[in-house]
Amino acid sequence: MTIGNPTRWLAKVSNKCRRMMELSVVAVRDAETLAVGSRGTLEATKSALEAIFPDLLELLPGDFPASRVNDLGRHIHFCQINDCIDIAAFDIPDILEKAEVYAQEHIPETPSGEIGDYLHPLYRARLDREILIADPDFHGLVAKACIMLGDAFKYKAGAVDDQDSEIGRAFKVDSPKIKVLPELESSTAKNFQRGTMLLLQGVRAFYRNTHLHGQISTTKRQAIHALIIMSMLNEILDAAQTVGSEDA
């Protein structure tokens, strides 16, 4: 199994461990206070621990480092006062320590994490910087990304602006400035060419015009959606050929 978000995984492991530690400490206290009938207290503790232990085991991945988890299982099985002491003093602290190290080792190197792997490097860098800010401005992030995509288009087309008319001329099927695919003879190639034009114009209308001309309430999720679309288009531009260039 994979642990997914390391912070959330550690919180789940910590929750199970904390409950087991609390049960063990209370069992020792009650068993020593209630010398008569302590067996009932320990039996109840054993049942409670046995209910939690499988959930903890399910959370631990196959490559989880060697720990006292087997000792924990044995101590739960016997569940005498000394077993409860070992659970609280040795088993649980050891598992928690290993879990903390494991979680730290699996924290993504960049703030955007796995999502960033699907973004164009320019947009990933912007997202990483924004995530690290105490009060991130996702509206501003989308607006800046729109300008960056426009700049990428202008550079590729040798255009002075990224207006809809300029985009239309650049991707005109019968006389393009930019070719998405080397040949534009097939209907599929023509669809890619025309589709790229429409998507660029659509991003301009849907994101650039709205975010640059107004204050749009933009969530992190919405910003990531926008960056994924713009990343796709920027990568298409990167790979496209400029008609008349040496690689055309």
Describe the fold and architecture.
There is one protein chain. By secondary structure, the protein is mainly α. The protein folds into 2 domains: 6-105; 114-242, no CATH class. It is built from 10 helices and 2 strands.
Give the overall pLDDT as a whole number: 93
Please describe the biggest sheet, giving its number of strands, its sense, and whether it closes into a barrel: 2 strands, antiparallel
Q: Residue share in helices?
A: 55-70%
Structural class: mainly alpha
Measured on Cα atoms, how large is the radius of gyration?
29 Å
- Low-pLDDT ranges: none
Q: With helices defined by DSSP (H or I, 4 residues minimum), what is the helix count? A: 10
Strand numbers in spatial order across the main sheet: 1-2
Question: Can you tell me the number of structural domains?
Answer: 2
Series of H and E elements: HHHHHHHHEHHE
Oligomer: single chain
- Based on DSSP secondary structure assignment, what is the total number of beta strands? 2
- The termini sit apart by 47 Å
Shape verdict: elongated
Portion of residues in beta strands equals under 5%
Properties at a glance:
two-stranded antiparallel sheet, elongated, single chain, mainly alpha, 2% strand, 248 residues
Topology:
Layout: H1 6-33, H2 38-59, H3 69-78, H4 81-105, H5 113-116, H6 121-131, H7 138-157, H8 164-170, E1 178-179, H9 187-212, H10 220-239, E2 241-242
Antiparallel strand pairs: 1-2
